[in-house]
Amino acid sequence: MLDLGVSSYQLDERERGFSYLGDNELDMRMDKTQELTAKKIVNTFGEETIHIFQYEPEKLASIKGINKEKALIMAEDFNENWELWQIVGYLERFGIGPQNAKKIYQSLGANAIQEIEDNPYILVDLARGVDFKQIDKMAMDIGIGYDNEKRIESGIKYSLIRIRI
């Protein structure tokens, strides 16, 4: 199990302000009585916001209400969630919905995208609502060859499962 520092309620419920399940207004407050810090950050740093969180988090302390310690904690939390958001975006390109991203991230960790690119067929076992055909198309799209060992292995497994149905 992986502790992302937030609950599934906070990630799954759109009105919480940081759900990855749709277009939502940026909020990200754990406590709705707190002021809109995320809005201040984006207004201050604009297109550089992600860079600031990832590489220069101490600059967040220039915003009223954020000290250096809080800035570093915020950056750490952001970066953990950023990895999950990257997986969501990557999987959506192949028609795999965001509801699978959390499980895939928990199973594969921070290097999930690289692991998927190395062997997209692992998704057959990890993602709900997808099958070999969908993953095989994805694999072909990212350059996996027809004679790839993982493809053949997964195809055989898929066929055997289909026979039992």
Structural commentary:
This protein has 165 residues and is mainly α. The protein is 55% helix and 0% strand. It is built from nine helices and no strands. The radius of gyration is 19 Å and the shape is elongated. The mean pLDDT is 84.
- Using DSSP, what is the number of strands? 0
Q: How are helices and strands ordered from N to C?
A: HHHHHHHHH
Radius of gyration: 19 Å
Structural class: mainly alpha
Instruction: Sketch the major β-sheet.
Output: none
Mean pLDDT level: 84
Q: Give the DSSP E fraction (strand runs of 2 or more residues).
A: under 5%
Task: Extract low-pLDDT stretches.
Answer: none
The number of helical runs is 9
What proportion of the residues is helical, as a percent range? 55-70%
Shape, per Cα inertia axes: elongated
How far apart are the first and last residues' alpha carbons, in Å?
Answer: 31 Å
Short description:
The protein has helices at residues 8-12, 37-45, 49-55, 68-92, 101-108, 112-118, 123-126, 132-141, 149-164.
